[in-house]
Every structure is written in structure tokens, then in C-alpha cells.
Amino acid sequence: MREVNSVYRTAVTLRTALIGKQTLAFDALGCDGIRPAVGHTIEEVRTFGKNIEIVWDDGVVLHSTFRLTGSWHLYRRGERWSKPRDRAQVVIAVSDWIAVCFGAISLETFRDFDPRRHPILGKLGPNISHHDVDIEECVDRMMHYEDREATVSDVLLDQRVVSGIGNVFRCEILWACEIHPWACASELKRAECRELLLLAQESLIAQIPNEMAVYGRQGKSCHRCGDLIRVAHHGEASRVLYWCPGCQIGHQPLVSPNITPLSIDRTPVFGDTHPASHVLMNELATMRGDGQDSFN
Question: Taking Cα atoms as reference points, which of 29, 110, 26, 20 lies closest to residue 62?
């Protein structure tokens, strides 16, 4: 049990350092499979048993399994490592931290299952990040989406409609256009679909801005209306979705969707507003509710 709790504590520190951060470099000498692309944002750090999974906004997952000796280390940029660099199995660099994996008995990468990414079930649509993409074709695909009950959030991530929009940009462009994330996509007008896709194209070409409007800002005030940013899982793939309930009211459903928030209404420890702190508070509350008073 002690080593499992050690893995849990490691995951907590990784969340604080990595969640919501853009990947600046990724190197994995001991890992085969798909590689997280530079520029994508780390969205979740999951743990179960002796396993830690790091999840990127495009659905790529890095799975690591440990015994007694292996672990993830965190270093500030320029800080001296406690172990030789040639023993590092995975190195992930973000703006202010470097996460290094040593001694894992198993490392692999894969994508969280999403039928829309399946080679048979779903065929990629036009790449919205290309300058010469036919926007009107993309609008047509969005307007004629087969599931008339699908939310606009689902449609924007469906790679059969357009490819290239990740979760970060989905959250940001919905906020910019003041559209409710649970809005039914079939209710959007053609001009609204075009505005969303043009903004997505512009954002992807320009890359991620230095400051996000909603992504990673759970519990902070909206720049536009002052309401508090919320976060919840959304859709079949259960992706993390950030939005402002105060000003994203375009096509808001008449019946409130069943939203399970990812945070509790409690001030984070020491005033920490990082989204990872809210995840930690949730897990602490759950553990205490189960009668576990400590991590040891």
C-alpha cells in the first residue's frame, strides 16, 4: 500500500506542474508508439494502482507502470538532476518544469478510444489549420452532421468534420463566440458555424496564445463577464471542458444538461488557483469520505 500511495503523491505533483501546460519538448527513448506532438497541452494526470497516465488534449496517453524503485521526477529548468540523464526513459518539458521518468517497468503510448478516430468508423475531414482549406466545405460538414442531437462541442472534436481542432482550441473558440458548449449543433446558423471554424483556423495557424480565456482557468473570473469559469467532463470520450456560464449563453439548452463538475466549491489550499489543485481537493475529500486520513 505504501508504494501505491507514493505513486499517488507523485501524480499529484505532476498535476500541479503539468496540467494546462503546452508541451515544449518530448523525448522517450524507452517508449514505442505514437508520440505527443510538441505544442499540445497536457490535460490530465491519472493514477490507478502503480500506474500513472499523462493525457494530452489530442487524446494521446502516456502510460507508465512502476515497482518499488521507479518514479517520475520534477525539475525546474536548469536544475541539476538527481540521476544520470542517460537513465531517463521519458522527458517532458513545459514552460517552467521538466518531468523525467526513471525506472518504469512498462511504458507505452496510445490514444484514448474514440470511435471517430477509428480507421474504419471515421475518416478524417479537411485539416482546418491549412491556409488553403475550403472553409465552406467544412461548414457544410458541420451543418449536415449526421447526429442532429449532437452538441457543438462534440462536433468540433469530430475529426470527420474537420481535423486539427484539439480540446484547448475547442474551449477557447466556443468562449470567443459566446456559444454554450452543450448547445445543439443543428441549431447553429451557417454564419455561426463559419465564425467558429474561421476562428479555429486563425487560432491554429497562430498557435496557442500566451493567456487562455477559459482553458485551465477553473474557478477564476471570466475576462468578459466576471463569472467563474467552470470545468466538467463532456461527451463519449469524457474530455475535459472549460466554459463560462455567465456569457456563453448562445443556444443554451432549455433543459439544463446533466453536468458533473470536476471540482468542489471550496477554496484551494493556500489560495492555489491552478486547476490541478481542484482535482487534488476532490480526491482528498473522497479519501476522507472513505475513512482514509493520510497517504501513508
Answer: 110
Tens digit of each residue's pLDDT (9 = 90 or more) over 113-133: 655 555 544 567 888 888 889
Cβ proximity of 151 and 220 under 8 Å: no
CB-count burial class (<10 Å; 0-12, 13-18, 19+) for 106: middle
| pLDDT tier, 207 (very low <50, low <70, confident <90, very high otherwise) | low
Read off the pLDDT of residues 212-265 as tens digits, 9 standing for 90 and up. 899 989 999 999 999 999 998 887 666 789 999 999 999 998 877 767 566 433
Give the closest residue to 63 by CA, choosing from 27, 12, 105: 105
Beta-bridged to residue 163, according to DSSP, are: 127
Exposure string (b/e) for 166-175, b if CB count within 10 Å is 16 or more? Answer: bbbbbbbbbb
Helix (H), strand (E) at residue 64: strand 60-65
CA distance 65 to 51: 4
Q: Please identify which residue in the block is written with the cell numbers 461527451.
A: 235
- Sheet with 71-76, side-by-side order of all strands: 25-28, 90-93, 97-102, 71-76
What are the structural domains of the chain?
A: 2-112 (3.20.190.10), 115-243 (1.10.8.50)
Q: Encode 213-245: b = buried (16+ Cβ within 10 Å), e = exposed.
A: bbbbbbbeebeeeeeebbbbebeebebbbbbbb
Closest CA to 91 of 83, 82, 81, 101: 101
Sheet holding 51-56, edge to edge: 42-48, 51-56, 60-65, 106-111
Residue 78: count of CB within 10 angstroms of its CB: 6
First to last CA, the chain: 8
